[in-house]
Amino acid sequence: MLIIDHLTKTFGEKKAVDDLSLHILPGEIFGFIGHNGAGKSTTLKCAVGILQFDEGSVLINGTSITEDPVKCKRELAYIPDNPDLYDFMSGIKYLNFIGDIFAIPADVRQERIRRYADVFELTEDLAQPISAYSHGMKQKLALISAWLHEPKLILMDEPFVGLDPKASHLLKEMMRAHCDSGGAIFFSTHVLEVAEKLCDKVAIIKQGRLVKAGTMEEVKGDDSLEEVFLELEAE
Amino acid sequence: MLKVLLKKQLAEVFKSYFYDAKKNRMRSKGAVIAWFVFFAVILVVILGGMFTALSLSLCEGLTQAGVGWLYFLLMGGIAIILGAFGSVFNTYSGLYLAKDNDQLLSLPIPVRTVITARLVNVYLLGTLYSAMAMLPTLIVYWVTAGATAARVICGLLLFLIVSFVVLILSCLLGWVVAKISVRLKNKSFITVLAALVFIAAYYFFYFKANRMIRDMLQNAAVYGVRIKGAAYVLCLFGRIGEGDWLCAVLFTVVTAALFLLIWIGITRSFLKLATAGGSTGKIRYTEKAVREKTPFRALLGKELTRFASSPNYMLNCGLGVLIIPICGVLLLIKGGEALSALNAVFAAMPDAAAVLLCTALCMIASMNNMAAPSVSLEGKSLWIPQSLPVEPGTVLRAKGAMQLILSGVPMVFASVCGAIVLDASPAARLLCVLLPLAFSFFYAGCCTALGVRMPLLSWTNELAPIKQSGAVVIVLFGDWILCIAMAGLYLLGGHQIGTVPYMLIWTVLFAALGTLLLRWLDTRGARIFQAL
Q1: B13-22 mean pLDDT
Q2: pLDDT for B277
Q3: Counting Cβ atoms within 10 Å, is residue A115 exposed (0-12), middle (13-18) or buried (19+)?
Q4: Is B186 a residue whose pLDDT tops 70?
Q5: What is the dihedral of CA A28, A29, A34, A37, to 10 degrees?
Q6: Distance CA B449, CA A134 (A)
Q7: What is B61-107 written as a DSSP string?
Q8: Residue A17 pairs with which residues in a beta bridge?
Q9: DSSP label at B282?
Q10: Which chain A residues are closer than 8 Å to B380 by Cβ?
Q11: What average pLDDT does the structure give for chain B?
């Protein structure tokens, strides 16, 4: 579903991502962990086509993000760490905007908006301007917009930040359901307990380089993910 | 603490002078000097020159008539209107809508310090505007009437008083706008409407100014006596400039007291207004039938919504939407007469009025440059168009199309009105419609291209990309230079090839350049946008 191959991205002199390779298969929830500034967000942005990279390749369902970005973007959804949405729109207007971009038929779109807005208890607030939303509400709206076109691949940067416990729980269920139906999810997080319970595979990145990756069992063995992470960070 | 906040505030205002957003690095010393020289030339030469000419036309006559105070009253009044008009919306958005309000209020900084730092910013901007009128006023008076110590000191004191009156008015009006905004539903449009009334009044007096000045100079003594009788306080205000110490002290004390009152009022209401979420009540969501749109139409709709959501955006970059049709109506009413007069003046150049009419319409078209700050206004939401499955060229085309629609439709109306009243050949009349339209097409492409070439994405106040970005300044002045060139070349010799061929050349040129710009947006512009 997503192949990141020898990805390198530099900002001036600094290598933010250094020769990183990852394969995310259909049906997988793939967690991406690392300390602040390790290169997680940069990797996600490169994978989505927001950032141009120096070396390597990113393939989404076999298509290169650099060669046919529009085709790739049709199959994915991305949520950044800070959901800066269009403040000047109402929630429903934003969702319809996304629906139009992805050419979702009106009846399908309405049914999905109804379903996901109900799940996240956002229906009542859909007519409100986004500028009046709290951080959590914006995050919920960003999640609905990501699920709206039922993408095959969802990339999320710290998706649990700002969500209330109920919404966090619902998101975990939605992530699992998405992957069970053949989709894939690649997300970064600092919440290691969540990653440990939720992810099928995990990758740990340090100073732009991949230090460990594999199934949860392969990475953590008999230890907790937190212990493994702290150990790798200390090296 | 105040020093730190002031540094931050000023760094934000002058950021584009020191920092090259495109190259993501600080500008060289030479580039910084060049930017400041450019800014100074605009302020001192163009605007300062205008007010120097006005001062020269008034000063001698009024001082000789023994009503020098009337000269200072008039020029001081102009400076106050100019300053308050220029900074009222800056006060509103800079004081109450700044994006870092929440962050600063969460820090251990007294609210008063935050307000003071913001007000210094408003004060500097207001003073800058009023200085353009006040400095020529004082210098011309000192040269004409003589520069005694009393006149110089009191004159400078008058400038100080004027600058604080501007601050008081800006704060008061900014506070009123903020207070109204909290309660209104369609606040963007109502704010724009209020501003337009203000602008209409401004232009009404501006157009009447010449006649008023002539009248005033001819009857200076009479007006002097009348004003003295009806509003003696105004006479006292004017006397400050003449070197009256008592008036200077009196007005300084009154202005300081008024400012203190305003400052206390703002300090007390700031938190409530700056953190108000609006008291218009929650809008209840009801499901409605959805009309599907193509990605391009969706992006265009988004651009139009963005435009309509911000009074600052509409007022600074879209006044032409109203002014162009108003010009059309004025052309229908008075245009025939005016254009015939132009044809008579340039009798040696048949149909010269057609070229001049097109020049005027193209110049008015420059009032609509909403595509120029459009890329910058994406700000932190830039990830949305960059991560969506649309070609970057389509995103840019939507921005250009917004301007083309908002300028082109009013332009069709205005130019058809012009063509109706114009006494010219059918071909010249047709070109009177086509040339401004071709120009609008070219100008929309130009604004979009410069917008993507000179983006200003990290801002805390939307006025920064709307008013202070290089793209906006260049398209505005570039348009004027181009229009002057179009008329100038015609008058200098272009008329020899005939009016219709001359207009046809410009029409084809604008259409061709517009098409090239469109191609550029789809290719290089798209690559730049994706790499932002």
Answers
A1: 68
A2: 53
A3: exposed
A4: no
A5: 100
A6: 35
A7: HHHHTT-HHHHHHHHHHHHHHHHHHHHHHHHIIIIIS-TTHHHHHHS
A8: A9
A9: P
A10: 82, 84
A11: 84
Q: How far apart are the CA of B183 and the nearest CA of chain A, in angstroms?
A: 14
Q: B413 is written with which tokens? A: 């109306």
Band (pLDDT 50/70/90 cuts) for residue B276 is low
Mind telling me how many Å the CA of B30 is from chain A's nearest CA?
A: 23
**Its pTM surpasses 0.95:** no
SS3 label, residue A182:
coil
- State the first-to-last Cα distance of chain A, in angstroms, to the nearest integer: 32
B277: buried, middle or exposed (CB in 10 Å: 19+, 13-18, 0-12)? Answer: exposed
Token pair 């006044």 is found at B319
CA–CA separation, A192 and A173 (whole Å):
17
At B449, the amino acid letter reads A
Pairing of strands A55-60, A63-64: antiparallel
Reported for B480-486, long-range contacts at CB under 8 A and 24+ positions apart, including other chains, are B480/B363, B480/B366, B482/B362, B483/B359, B483/B362, B483/B363, B483/B366, B484/B359, B486/B355, B486/B358, B486/B359, B486/B362
pLDDT digits (tens, 9 = 90+) for B134-182: 999 999 999 998 889 999 999 999 999 999 999 998 888 877 777 776 6
Q: Per the CB < 8 Å rule, is B305 touching A88?
A: yes
Q: How far is B167 from chain A (nearest CA, A)?
A: 30
Q: Give chain B's length.
A: 532
Separation between Cα atoms, residue A225 and residue A231, nearest integer Å: 10
Question: What's the angle, vertex CA B115, arms to CA B113 and CA B120, rounded to 5?
Answer: 95
Q: According to the model, what pLDDT value does residue B309 have?
A: 86
pLDDT of amino acid B31: 81
| The predicted structure's pLDDT at residue B21 | 59
- For the ranges B178-182, B211-215, B489-493, the maximum mean pLDDT occurs at B489-493
Q: Which tokens hold the place of A114?
A: 């109804």
Residue B332: closest CA among B419, B417, B436: B417
Lowest mean pLDDT among B132-146, B240-254, B468-482, B498-512: B468-482
Whether the CB of A126 is below 8 Å from some CB of chain B: the reply is: yes
CB atoms within 10 A of CB A107: 11
The residue type of B295 is P
Give me the average pLDDT of each 10-residue run along chain A (235 residues).
Answer: 90 86 92 89 92 91 90 92 90 94 92 92 90 91 94 92 89 92 92 87 90 85 80 74
Residue tagged 């020269």 (tokens): B56
Helix (H) or strand (E) holding B495: none
Residue pair B332/B417 in contact (Cβ under 8 Å)? The answer is: yes
Q: Which amino acid is at B69?
A: W
CA dihedral A46, A47, A53, A59 (to 10 degrees): -170
Nearest Cβ partner for B387 among A73, A100, A124: A73
Alpha carbon B453 to chain centroid, angstroms: 22
Strands of the sheet with A76-79, listed across from one edge: A76-79, A153-157, A184-188, A29-33, A201-206, A209-215
